[in-house]
Amino acid sequence: MTGQVYKSTGSWYTVKTQLGEFYQCRIKGKFRIKGIKSTNPIAVGDVVDFELETSNDEVSGVIYNIHDRKNFIVRKSVNLSKQTHIISANIDQVFLMITIDNPPTFTSFIDRFLVTAEAYSIKTILLFNKIDTYNEETLLEVKYLAHVYRKIGYECIGISAKTGKNVDKVKSLMKDKVSMFSGHSGVGKSTLVNAIEPSLNLKTKEISNQHMQGQHTTTFAEMFDTSFGARIIDTPGIKGFGVVDMDKEEVGDYFPEIFELKQDCKFNNCLHLQEPKCAVKKALDDDEIAYSRYRSYVQILEGEDENYRTDNWDNE
Ligand SMILES: Nc1nc2c(ncn2[C@@H]2O[C@H](COP(=O)(O)OP(=O)(O)OP(=O)(O)O)[C@@H](O)[C@H]2O)c(=O)[nH]1
Ligand SMILES: [Zn+2]
């Protein structure tokens, strides 16, 4: 039988078959995934093959194969430095929720998030939430940011999870796909999920109340079906993606506007810093590239993200 993992608690996996039946499954033998030392071999979103087994009149499944992953996101263990934890696999898209204030979302956060999502090959859609609370000035800021990010290919939608404004647009993008919601604590993720699918109310409440989760607690993602053919992966305690290690030369490839220009730089290993005849620096001077994006690029390159990591990413 083949199915998809909806939930995992470490040793047991809840798997849903194509016929819509749920089975509790265990793993047979050991799985190794190339290049990754992971604390969990199978994650939510994985498609697995399993066979049924009956003991004491209880039917359960034994997983013997994982299908290739389209993508997956990992979190580094805080204590076991070399180990990673796979949060979830086979994600179609992530909605990054942004608020201008209450709480503020800075472009450095947005850009690092986007770089990581690009590195994981996960499509990101930007949702500017709480537009019902914004005055003219704040709305202008939303417009400006939406302009910056649309120009480089990211879809941007202004929404209000509270009043329901444009929530139908979000729902139509979610249809037949597996989506995640990310963003700072308080941006309105639970409120939006509840607006999208009120029957999930209880679960999201439960999750947002788990504020005791410290660094030593392992958190598990869970997948939920909705009534309109969309699936949501909820990742308690993890509002971001974790940090991907990348080489300096690679960083620019995850900024679409920088990637597009790099073949026009004089040096093919140009890092777009002080090099002569750099197409990226020229585009910056010509206002073709947003200064905030370039600043984020340089910050990531220089590893000026330590504060960012501890303040906004891991401990949220
Ligand atoms: N005015 C307004 N308030 C909103 C909107 N969306 C969410 N809120 C409020 O913002 C607060 C935080 O919303 P949550 O949905 O709990 O935020 P969250 O992102 O799930 O937060 P965590 O669970 O801590 O990660 C709540 O008081 C919501 O009522 C919105 O569109 N407009
Ligand atoms: Zn360059």
From TrEMBL:
GO terms for cellular component: cytoplasm. Zn(2+) binds at C265, C270, H272, C278. GO terms for molecular function: GTP binding; GTPase activity; metal ion binding; rRNA binding. Residues 80-241 form the CP-type G domain. Its EC number is 3.6.1.-. GO terms for biological process: ribosomal small subunit biogenesis. Residues 89-239 form the EngC GTPase domain. PROSITE patterns: ENGC_GTPASE, G_CP. Keywords: Cytoplasm, GTP-binding, Hydrolase, Metal-binding, Nucleotide-binding, Ribosome biogenesis, RNA-binding, rRNA-binding, Zinc. It is found in: Cytoplasm. Monomer. Associates with 30S ribosomal subunit, binds 16S rRNA. HAMAP family: GTPase_RsgA. This is Small ribosomal subunit biogenesis GTPase RsgA.
